[in-house]
Amino acid sequence: MIIVHHLNNSRSQRILWMLEEMGVAYEIAHHQRDPVTRLAPPELLAVHPLGKSPVIVDDGQVVAESGAILEYLIERHGGGAFAPDRASRDWVSYVQWMHYAEGSAMLPLLLALYAGRLGDAAQPLWPRIQGEIGANLAFIEASVTGKSFLVGDRLTAADVQIVFVLEAADANGALAALPQSKRYLAALQARPAYQRAVDKGGPYDLGGNRS
Ligand SMILES: N[C@@H](CCC(=O)N[C@@H](CS)C(=O)NCC(=O)O)C(=O)O
Description:
Layout: E1 2-7, H1 12-22, E2 26-31, E3 55-58, E4 61-64, H2 66-77, H3 89-116, H4 126-144, H5 157-171, H6 179-189, H7 192-201
Parallel strand pairs: 1-2
Antiparallel strand pairs: 1-3, 3-4
Helix pairs in contact: 1-2, 1-5, 1-7, 3-4, 3-5, 4-6, 5-6
The chain binds glutathione.
């Protein structure tokens, strides 16, 4: 049985959504952020040395890092769905999005979160941070324009990865002028599997400066 160590209001929502789309049985181990620091509770350190979420345990195998978890689930339990054929051009695009979400797109959003806590001391950083957020969101906006899915004509794990980026940006107020991203996001959030994942994961709200 797959166990998902789920932290409230976090990236592990991605994993619940993917598993619901796949129709694979799983259990949730619920963990709550510290109400003051917003950090994960220390018990997650017993699951993985980084003490972060998401992390899953499947038949004794521990997997951390959301992109890696999604790849693992697709390989072991996905039966060929939710990723393009490896020989196709779409697969190359898919791999790019899978790495891009955490490797590039999240960084300026997280920098904004932390710089926001520094007050005036962060003033010199803001032009660069805002520039990077703008460039990344413009890239995503152009990539989803007129499309329901990032790659091909069906849902892949790349959509699951990028939806969290857009949700974090939305919580920041950064999607206001990006109508295609808002449309793309709303359509994916309306999927029954997404809704079931939220029901099972508990209240999901990325506002309030969470990392
Ligand atoms: N790149 C990692 C990021 C993992 C991560 O930072 N998770 C956050 C939740 S969204 C976390 O556990 N934060 C609590 C903490 O750092 O204590 C991934 O995609 O899994």
